[in-house]
Design a protein that fits this description.
Oligomer: single chain
Shape: flat
Order of helices and strands: HHHEEEEEEEHEEEHEEEEEEEEEEEEEEE
Length: 427
């Protein structure tokens, strides 16, 4: 049974004629005779017939044909991307906890299927809880805590930011010196999303390439001005903000400025979704401020100079937060370690892998050189004893063994695969 094509436009000839008649008073109010004998009505009926034929032809166009038409005007669909989200952590008890990058967490999607997400950066989980959000402008303090808890957007520096406006973040526990605090801001503006970040980085990369002199074609030539690493996000020149922490100076509470090295702003001065990592140089102090009666440790951001074309509006503010992306493990390979083989300690990060097999297929020698490639994630390692065999499991897929003939094909067990994340190794 053939698959029916989608009906992109279900209007028929009668509908098109009715629409044309309804537009006559708008575009030609002097046209009063709208009976069937009028030549103008005849033209409307004729054009409606042509339009109906075009609609019929449009519904016959397949998705493959649409992609071909788009390619003619140099428009190509974006490749699939893994889902991305932001994870926020909280401590039940205890001191700050440092979590490394590439930790995996599992949750259920809308179809109750287990979905694995992996953190992209390291994060330090602080025991402090964000208990109040206030904004101070020319009219004084405004308590926005309830708006944040209900998910209602609020302006970072008010609805109309003015120089000197301030945002206060109050925590129920004093921030400790030297302990980084991760704040993730998600803004309501569509121009603050990851697409805008990728566009800016693409422009920076293109500008860098245009300004980089070509490398001579002689052997061993190296360009001294060749860029290294990924392009950095350029700063936002329209506005400048300063971060300050309330600290104790004797009996007085003073606002201690945080230097540029103490604040890592990935939001581009509140214009892009991202993290702000604040590392206090001193211990915060508790105080009552504004309409909030509870003593809290306040961290504030102050608009020092400049202005915004569009006021930054916070959609969500998460504490102890880090980006995460959806991942799918390619699979795992488990080998047996021959008795008597001495294995190194199990690594906690992806490392190189060097091993040798004996005639029975068991590992006869094993090492994890840190600088070697390719690098694998070790899932489990059970050391062998003098009499019992051990086991080694790594995150990888063994596609098979080739016989040397051309045009051999192998199929990955989990598809589709993001091309940039695929690493293929042969021995």
């Amino acid at each position: 049974m053939p698959i029916l094509l989608p009906n992109l436009d279900d209007r028929r000839w009668e509908d098109l004629v009715s629409e044309g008649r309804a537009l006559i008073p708008l575009y030609a109010p002097e046209w009063t005779d709208q009976n069937a004998h009028d030549p103008g009505i005849t033209l409307i009926e004729l054009l409606a017939w042509f339009a109906e034929m075009d609609i019929f032809s449009l519904n016959r166009i397949t998705d493959r044909s649409k992609l071909k038409f788009l390619s003619l005007v140099d428009i190509h669909p974006e490749p699939p991307r893994p889902a991305a989200t932001v994870l926020s952590f909280a401590l039940r008890t205890g001191a700050a906890l440092a979590l490394p990058a590439q930790l995996e967490f599992t949750g259920l999607d809308l179809f109750s299927q287990a979905t694995v997400f992996q953190t992209l950066d390291a994060v330090t989980v602080q025991p402090a809880v964000l208990a109040a959000v206030q904004v101070k402008d020319a009219n004084g303090f405004h308590d926005l805590t309830d708006r944040r808890l209900r998910g209602v957007p609020f302006g970072v520096f008010g609805d109309v930011p003015q120089t000197g406006a301030e945002m206060y973040l109050g925590f129920d526990t004093a921030l400790a010196a030297g302990e980084p605090l991760s704040l993730f801001f998600t803004f309501a503006s569509p121009h603050a999303k990851p697409e805008e970040r990728r566009r800016i980085l693409k422009e920076v990369k293109a500008r860098t390439q245009d300004c980089t002199p070509p490398i001579p074609q002689c052997a061993g030539a190296v360009s001294a001005s060749s860029p290294a690493g990924k392009p950095a996000l350029p700063p936002f020149g329209g506005a400048r903000i300063a971060w300050e922490l309330a600290t104790a100076s004797g009996p007085q509470i003073v606002w201690t400025p945080l230097s540029a090295t103490a604040v890592a702003d990935d939001t581009r001065t509140f214009t892009l979704d991202g993290r702000v990592i604040v590392t206090p140089t001193g211990t915060g102090a508790m105080q009552k401020l504004g309409p909030v009666d509870t003593p809290l440790c306040y961290l504030r951001a102050r608009l020092v100079a400049g202005a915004y074309d569009s006021p930054p509006t916070v959609q969500n503010l998460a504490v102890n937060a880090v980006r995460a992306k959806q991942v799918t493990a390619p699979g795992n390979i488990t080998w047996s370690i021959a008795p008597g083989v001495i294995a190194p300690p199990e690594p906690t990060a992806p490392v190189g892998l060097q091993l040798t097999f004996d005639a029975s297929g068991e590992i006869s020698s094993l090492s994890f050189p840190a600088a070697a490639t390719p690098r694998f994630r070790v899932l489990s390692l059970t050391p062998a004893t003098s009499t019992a065999a051990g086991s080694l499991s790594i995150e990888a897929v063994l596609l098979g063994i080739g016989d040397g003939t051309p045009y051999q094909q192998v199929t990955l067990p989990n598809a589709p695969v993001k091309q940039a994340s695929l690493n293929l190794f042969t021995l």
